[in-house]
Amino acid sequence: MTRAYRGARGRGHPPPPTTVRLEPGHKRTLYVVFGTLAGSGIGWLLFHHFARVPTEFGEGPHPLEKWWLRLHGLAAMAALVGLGTLLLPHLRRAWQTGHNRASGASLILTVLIVVGTGYGLYYFASEESRPIISLVHWVLGLAVMGLLVTHVALRQRAGRARGTGREAHERRRPGTAAEDERRLHTEIHTGPEAAPRGLRFPGDRQGRI
What we know:
Shape: elongated
Number of domains: 2
Distance between the termini: 37 Å
Largest sheet: 2 strands, antiparallel
Order of helices and strands: HHEEHHHH
Number of helices: 6
């Protein structure tokens, strides 16, 4: 127990959480934010490339294309806030405990590149570089969705494996509540002499060693 922890507990503060799991409400909020970000990006792609409308000067952008882009920008700002909420309760602790480091690091690195290319599209892209930056941005943006699904699936599989291991350990460990109940059942129905050794019951003056 660290000195800081003892001091915090002495002042009536709860101990710092050690789990890397997110609260259900926090998780749902992040899913909504990142789902909106991905959906608006895909919507812009579809309208930009496949929903052009004819104008007097040739094909032009669909009227809804700019609204997909505006929604995407709004969701991107919310997503950056969401990433900030993950720094301490999830990213740092998961890295310290070694949970899903490879998938988590790949996801974060890809997200950082997507954030950087999105920033570049708004403020630095020229007419020559914009198509390349845009291509990198949306290709890696789609990859983020796959990496996120993989990361969550690996986390859930690891959680199920740990739960199965704990259950098997409880079944093998002597002196569990289930075993004590079986011993008590044997004592009641077959008499004290048939009870397994090592269990002492009230009224059994001899006891067992």
